Amino acid sequence: MLRSGEPAETCDTQSRSTKTKETSPRIVVAKQNNGLVITALDDAAARIGLAIGQPLANARAICPDSEVFDADETADSKALSGIADWCDRFTPLVALDPPHGLLLDITGCAHLFGGEAALMRQLCSALKRQGFDVSAAIAGTSACARALTRHAHGRIVAPGEEAGAVAALPVFALGADDAITRGLRRAGLKTVGDVAARGRHEIAARFSAAFTALLEQALGQSDAPINPRKPLPDFIVEKRFAEPIATDGAIARTLAGLARTLIAAMEKQGKGARRLEAGFFRTDGAVRIIAVETGRPVTRGETIDRLFRERLDALADPLDPGFGFDLVRLSAVRTDLVVQEQRDLDTHVRDNDEVAALVDRLAARIGSQRVVVHLPQDTHIPERASFPVPAQQHLAAAMRAEWPARIEGEPPLRPLRMFARPEPIEVTLAEVPDKPPRHFTWRRVTHTVVRAEGPERIAMEWWRTQEVRPTRDYFRVEDEAGLRFWLYRDGLYNEAAGNGEAVPPKWFLHGLFA
Amino acid sequence: MAGNGSSAGTLARLRDRIARIETDHGGGMPGRASLGHEKADAVLQGGLARGAMHEVFAEGRHSAAASGFIAGLAQRVCANRPLLWVRQDFAARESGALSMRGWRELGLDPCLLVTVHVPGVESALRTAADALACDALGAVVMETWGETRLLDLVASRRLTLAARTSGVTGLLLRVAATPLPSTAETRWIVRPARSPPCEAWQAWGAPVFETRLVRNRHGQTGQWIMEWSCDECLFRDVSIRDAQTHPQPVAAAPADRPDRARVVALRRAG
């Protein structure tokens, strides 16, 4: 993917860098090999001779009044992904380079920001304003950019000049294992140029083929693709503001305008959007992404507009503009081909479209898991006979589904309402071995059974589960008030437990008939 | 001048009449859906009005029967259009979720049912109002549990207006609640009725409801025992069927063949 003329950029961020101008040095320590060592430090600490990897005891000896913080890896990675979100404004291809780096594939994006140098300047100054200490470099391959970032901040390497750029860097800059770096030093190979001058087979024999691959990438002789955090959206439209916008009206108008542009772009390729994401980039660096999904490809700007309005209205944590958004982006993350079909006079098709549109709107507001249709399942276990699925994806399938027909002339054999968990009932009197209860207590009310029908014996599916579950004997019963219940006895009488003693079976109420 | 005045009066009268006709019939899918129960249909002047709101109230323990009754009403009104059932989460916990096999056993089609689970009454109201505006649906059922102040006259009027504009029928199932003032066309109170007496070998357990029509904006009220016939998908009078198959006052007679045969024939005809 990355070849000549495709620069990648690494920016190294010290997420714990200090914002205040304090004189006392600050260091971050973490436990490594049973000892606390420095993992990050600020300029003041670096000036007095502290370095990453030094034990804390040594640092204390050098400078007793340094401020020490415990490393918080979770917070660090969170901060890094926050910065990565923010970097989305430069290119959609942003990859994490843990623990402190980001890789941006800026192929074809640099000219939008006035060239590579201007882009890097914008990125670094904006991150500095947010309080991060940044170093960055642009090169044709990610390994080269990574090496330069550590030792030559601000360097832009033209395609083909990678080998010259990294030659003077120490081998540490390659970012290989400690063992390899140490081995190279011991062999007297201090710089990348020294290593590059040796024969490849010598290096590979001693330091593995993986290292030679890394070396070739750093020298610009081969390339490895970066691993972006998010898939590349099919279509992106965005609007930048010199003066940040903050009012609901302005945001709604912007989204509506973007939706029209997006639709126009998609229409040329005959596509419709299935998943849309709106990104709101705040001036202070916070980014909020809001997504909506649709059941069928959307081809109208008004529909997009309306879906986002529903979604924004229903947000539990509303959109906070802070000091305003300076970039609003609308991207079609997933698109489908739209088949333009001739509509006949049958209104049925149109009706289905309208129902699908309604389902999309409801799903945008309350979540797609809450709008469900049911699909029949090939099983005789009552609670598994139908499977609820999101209507957005399965509406058409559910409308074509074939449900088992009922037996004519019979009363309903299955209850209209069924409990997700069968509710235990107390049965005071039931004839053995397989008669329905005479009385039972459910939710502290005792019901006297007037009529009963059963048992209908349902054995559990032994071929699906490992554990043996008891068979159930189901009864339809009616009490003296006319309430109709579906009860079952879990297990049989005289069924012996493991130790040979008979266990009394349990009774449950599974559903209610109309 | 006089001629002018009289023509203006005629115009006003005509406008008034048109307005009345229009409010009576509503929008897209006008008319009334017959329930199949003759007496109830007579009182309702032909059946349940489409494009209007109807309320069904029931006690907590009678919720299953009330859902069966409202499912029947929805089936009569829908006429093969999709049905949207908006359900409060708490209702499923109290009286169970709708079972599709049970739905099928009532003679209804699960393919045409979309269920929406909502956390509270407020979102239920919004969802129902949205759904009522979509004229591709046949009916919208909104099921809530317990007392709430949110379902007041304003909310009810909003739903009624939405239903009237689109012609979609709104059915409100309120379990464990007392009626509040509303703009609903009809209000029913439902409880299950005992299955009619029968021999041990005979099938029992068809959905039988004791229904009370306590409010009817355009007619009288009434009280009937109805049975939902799962095969024919309509409501029937139990007392008639009872009298034919089990002549109650007469001394116990075996289920006599001629009568049973006639009932079967009637069913086929229906």
Please report the distance between the alpha carbons of the first and last residues of chain B: 61 Å
Tally of individual domains of chain A? 3
Largest interface: A-B, 61 and 62 residues
Strand content of chain A: 25-35%
Number of strands of chain A: 19
DSSP helix count of chain B? 9
Q: Quick one: overall form of chain B?
A: globular
Low-confidence spans of chain B: 24-28, 243-270
Query: What is the overall number of helices of chain A?
Result: 13
Round the mean pLDDT of chain B to the nearest integer and report it: 83
CATH topology of chain B: Rossmann fold
Helix/strand layout:
The complex is a heterodimer of chains A (514) and B (270).
Chain A: E1 8-14, E2 26-32, E3 35-41, H1 43-47, H2 56-62, E4 67-70, H3 73-87, E5 94-97, E6 101-105, H4 116-129, E7 133-139, H5 142-151, H6 162-167, H7 178-186, H8 192-197, H9 200-218, E8 235-245, H10 248-268, E9 271-282, E10 287-298, H11 301-313, E11 325-337, H12 347-366, E12 371-376, E13 386-390, H13 391-400, E14 417-430, E15 437-442, E16 445-458, E17 472-479, E18 484-490, E19 506-513
Parallel strand pairs in A: 2-4
Antiparallel strand pairs in A: 1-6, 1-7, 2-3, 5-6, 8-11, 9-10, 9-11, 12-13, 14-15, 14-19, 15-16, 16-17, 17-18, 18-19
Helix pairs in contact in A: 5-9, 10-11, 11-12, 12-13
Chain B: H1 2-25, E1 32-33, H2 38-43, E2 48-49, E3 53-58, H3 63-78, E4 83-88, H4 89-95, E5 97-98, H5 100-105, E6 113-118, H6 121-132, E7 139-145, H7 153-166, E8 169-175, E9 186-192, E10 208-216, E11 222-229, E12 234-237, H8 238-245, H9 257-269
Parallel strand pairs in B: 3-8, 3-9, 4-6, 4-7, 7-8
Antiparallel strand pairs in B: 1-2, 9-10, 10-11, 11-12
Verbal overview:
The complex is a heterodimer of chains A (514) and B (270). Chain A is α+β, with helices and mostly antiparallel strands and 514 residues long. Chain A has three domains: 8-24 and 66-218; 235-337, 2-Layer Sandwich (Dna Ligase, domain 1); 417-513. Chain A has 13 helices and 19 strands. Chain A has helices at residues 43-47, 56-62, 73-87, 116-129, 142-151, 162-167, 178-186, 192-197, 200-218, 248-268, 301-313, 347-366, 391-400, and strands at residues 8-14, 26-32, 35-41, 67-70, 94-97, 101-105, 133-139, 235-245, 271-282, 287-298, 325-337, 371-376, 386-390, 417-430, 437-442, 445-458, 472-479, 484-490, 506-513. Chain A has a six-stranded antiparallel β-barrel. A four-stranded antiparallel β-sheet of chain A has the order 5-6-1-7. A four-stranded antiparallel β-sheet of chain A has the order 8-11-9-10, with helices on both faces. The two termini of chain A are 63 Å apart. In chain A, 33% of the residues are buried. Chain B is of the alpha/beta class and 270 residues long. Chain B has a single domain (26-269), classed as P-loop containing nucleotide triphosphate hydrolases (Rossmann fold), CATH 3.40.50.300. Chain B contains nine helices and twelve strands. Chain B has helices spanning 2-25, 38-43, 63-78, 89-95, 100-105, 121-132, 153-166, 238-245, 257-269, and strands spanning 32-33, 48-49, 53-58, 83-88, 97-98, 113-118, 139-145, 169-175, 186-192, 208-216, 222-229, 234-237. Chain B has a nine-stranded mixed β-sheet, with helices on both faces. Chain B has a two-stranded antiparallel sheet with strand order 1-2. In chain B, helix 6 (121-132) packs parallel to helix 7 (153-166). Chain B is globular and about 75 Å long. Classes of the chains: A alpha+beta (514), B alpha/beta (270). At the A-B interface, helix 12, strand 12, helix 13, strand 14 and strand 16 of A face helix 3, strand 5, helix 5, strand 6 and helix 6 of B.
